Amino acid sequence: MIFDLQWVQNNAGYLARLVGEHAVLAILPVIAAFLVAVPLGYLIFRTGRAAGAVLTVCGVVYAIPFLALFVAVPLLFGVDLLSPITVGIALTIYSVALLVATVVDGLRSVPTEVRQSATAAGYSPLGRLIRIELPLAMPKIFAGLRAVTVSNIALVSVAAVIGGGALGELFDEGLASRLYTPAIVGLALTILLAVLADVLIRIIQRGSLPWARKQQPA
Amino acid sequence: MNLFGYLQDPSTWYGPGQTLELLVQHLGYTAAAVGIAAVIGIPLGLLLGHTRRASWLVAALRNGTRALPALGLLVLVALALGSGFGAIWVVLTVVAFLVILAATATGVLDADREAVHSARALGLTEPQIATQVEWPLALPMVIAGLRNATVQVIAMVTVAAFVGGGGLGRLLVDGRASGNDAQMFAGVFLIAIVAIVAYLLLSLLVWRVARQARPGRTTVPSYAAAA
């Protein structure tokens, strides 16, 4: 039998726990990375000089396969390989690399005239950033947040290669017991979670940026 | 403990299933998948972009390909077809194909519309417009797609060791199983080097091509940027 519905019913509680764990492991790094990436992205944007170099470094970091980064974290930070913190740190590094590029890109998309008008109207640099530049950059930043959340949800499972990995555990189980059901359920729940997160962030975006509803990037 | 111990020991490099063979396997898997995916994906992407059909699909693929749980796909295919080279290669090729297809179509869709309209007004046929106007303008995006596919496939080959495939991921899985930290570190080190070198070389190519396609405007599509 390819799909065993009974197995799903018997393990409903376990599956719900895995989904919750998966969501937390994927989303906390996004929040942490957002708090780091906004000031860092603004600094890079303002100073200009280092932008090319920093963005290249971000690209290089993002190019490192997740599994390699994940295994490197205990060696660099001295945390236990099987601890959820390891996955968290690895995903945060990844998320920062992706979000910094997006924040810089978003801030660059603010027209110079708008920036100059804000200065002429008496905004301090910080006030201008918070009241004018960030809101205008947010559509791009939201696109980045969606991309990084969805990518994190896919990556958490990879930790199962070493042990753990929330919904990734189901892949481990499927492989060990040679059963399709856990693997199919794991795959379906991972994709479902990603779609759900994407929709949720779109809703938050619509709610928080009412003026940008008509020009949402695809 | 000396983390470089495993890499410095020549006896771990040569022989069946040893580091050098795993490295060659890793590169071989990647080349085989990206190569075939490019041969199919680039012409199809050009066609999709030129006819401006299914642009919703292209937009969905641009972000959606990063959402694919590589491990889950590999496990399912390994259960169905076994963990031989063929089964893993199919998964890698399909993912690379989708990335390259979406990038090529995006490049064509984003090609300067005025240039395309001018070419049509001058009497160029549709195949001529596609190959002589849209293709050169899309080329930086096409190469960026090849780069992104390569990077993603290198990462997926790493994971393939989990389902019994070869490649450098073996060092991580085997090192983990035998508690050999130096062997795991050797894996981390070599995988990172392979990915970074591939990324930088292909990025350089993207940059050179972009400079030729649009002299004076060298914005290079970054991998770490939301599409």
Considering the chains and any ligands shown, give keywords for the structure:
heterodimer, A: 218 residues, mainly alpha, MetI-like fold, 9 helices, elongated, B: 227 residues, 74% helix
What does this structure look like?
The complex is a heterodimer of chains A (218) and B (227). Chain A is mainly alpha-helical and 218 residues long. Chain A contains nine helices and no strands. Chain A has one domain: MetI-like (MetI-like fold, Orthogonal Bundle), CATH 1.10.3720. Chain B has one domain: MetI-like (MetI-like fold, Orthogonal Bundle). Chain B is built from nine helices and no strands. The chains are: A mainly alpha (218), B mainly alpha (227). The interface between A and B is large, with 53 and 47 residues.
Terminal Cα span of chain A: 40 Å
The radius of gyration of chain A is 20 Å
Helix run count of chain B: 9
Helix-strand makeup class of chain B: mainly alpha
Q: Write the H/E string of chain A, N to C.
A: HHHHHHHHH
If classified by CATH, what would the architecture of chain A be?
Orthogonal Bundle
**Superfamily at the CATH H level of chain B?**
MetI-like
pLDDT < 50 stretches of chain B: none
Radius of gyration of chain B: 20 Å
SS elements, strand count of chain A: 0
Measured as a percent range, the helix fraction of chain B is over 70%
Strand content of chain B: under 5%
Number of helices of chain A: 9
The low-confidence parts of chain A are none
CATH topology of chain B: MetI-like fold
Largest chain interface and its two residue counts? A-B, 53 and 47 residues
Largest sheet of chain A: none
Topology:
The complex is a heterodimer of chains A (about 220) and B (about 230).
Chain A: H1 5-10, H2 12-47, H3 51-63, H4 66-77, H5 84-108, H6 112-120, H7 125-156, H8 168-177, H9 180-208
Helix pairs in contact in A: 2-5, 2-7, 3-5, 4-5, 5-7, 6-7, 7-9, 8-9
Chain B: H1 5-8, H2 19-50, H3 55-64, H4 70-81, H5 85-109, H6 113-121, H7 126-160, H8 169-177, H9 181-213
